[in-house]
Write a structure and sequence with these properties.
- The chain is mainly alpha-helical and 422 residues long.
- The protein has 2 domains: 180 residues, Growth Hormone, Chain: A (Up-down Bundle), CATH 1.20.1250.20; 187 residues, Growth Hormone, Chain: A (Up-down Bundle).
- Helix content is 77%, strand content 0%.
- It is globular, with a radius of gyration of 21 Å.
- InterPro entries: MFS, MFS_dom, MFS_trans_sf, MFS_Transporters.
- It is found in: Cell membrane.
- It is a multi-pass membrane protein.
Amino acid sequence: MSLAALRRAARETVSGLPREFWWLWTSTLVNRLGAFVSTFMALYLTLDRGYSATYAGLVASLHGLGGVVSSIGSGVMTDRLGRRPTLLIAQSSTAAAVALLGFMHDPLAIAGVAFLVGMASNASRPAVQAMMADIVRPEDRVRAFSLNYWAINLGFAISSMAAGFIAEVSYRAGFLLEAGMTAACAVVVFLKLPESRPTVAVDDDGKKSVDSVGLGTVLRDGRFMSVVGLSFLVALVFQQGSVGLPVAMGEAGFTPADYGTAIAVNGFLIVALQIPVTRLIEHRDAKRLLVVSSILAGYGFGLTAFAGSVGVFALTVCVWTLGEMINAPTQTGLVVRLSPVQGRGRYQGMYTLSWAVAALVAPLMSGFVIDRFGAEWLWGLCAVVGTVAAVGYGALMRRLPMSGAAAVQPSAAAAKPEVSAA
């Protein structure tokens, strides 16, 4: 491909998206650039503080539990208070909690504040996704979600490299730097992002229509809850990249550096190929994409059972990373299509919950299977789970109209976003 063709492709990828999206994108990138704590938390607790690996695992679990707890609550806040207030509360709370964590010494205090950090940091996700759905046209949403996912991975790749250097100087500096960059995200939201929540319609009895979309509505939506269940299965597989894979490689005699080399392929491919992949998939059949991505995820990890060198491990990472690049924007777009406009926050919160619960279950599952049966059984189980998810998506999507967002959300055209900065 010529340089002119590359420039044209890049211009087409970023064109047509509203200014508010790019400020939200910038906030996401800055947030992930400062994501140092999740990278070096285990090292901080075991090497700097001298705690056991068991305690470090407990703190990580509490951090994840905080995310589970906040997923639903932040979704309700996103619908009731608005996207902008929820983002400001979440990011401000995250900045304060992360800074506080850097000054904690007592084991119980560290565990408690880690739980708060997990709650606060996860609370922004439903608001970000709901706001993005509000401000981006339906035909551009897959591209927008993909660009946002690209920003997340670009920021995380850079912060992961920087975390090691920062940790050599001062772990506390890492906590404070993350707190400062998260606070900067809140400033961007406050100054540049107007509220995007659709105006609330009032019926003949004077009741707000938003009241009809509660958590019960989400739970009774069988089609959407099926997507949440399938999302959990896919997330359970993808979590093995950071949970089961390092343990299995360690037991097979590979070093942490070997694991780092193999898993680095994931971040590199996403940064290098997410945008080109999006251009290929954004107007294709979502059903086929979700089926293919589930198969790639399941069998990508399944192939790990046959890996005997770092190079082969890296090749398996390539397979499931391709599935990840296809799945992330497609599935997020599907969630938006299935969400009533007035209940996007709650629906996004429930979707976020599926990933948060998977982050809790995956370590328990992988540890049990590896200890009891061996790593080969874990990779075989991943292939089975990926297949079940693929079959589930195939069956579910047969009943879903494929003519666009309006087919699922007939009220979308009637809902107008607020444009005030309050």
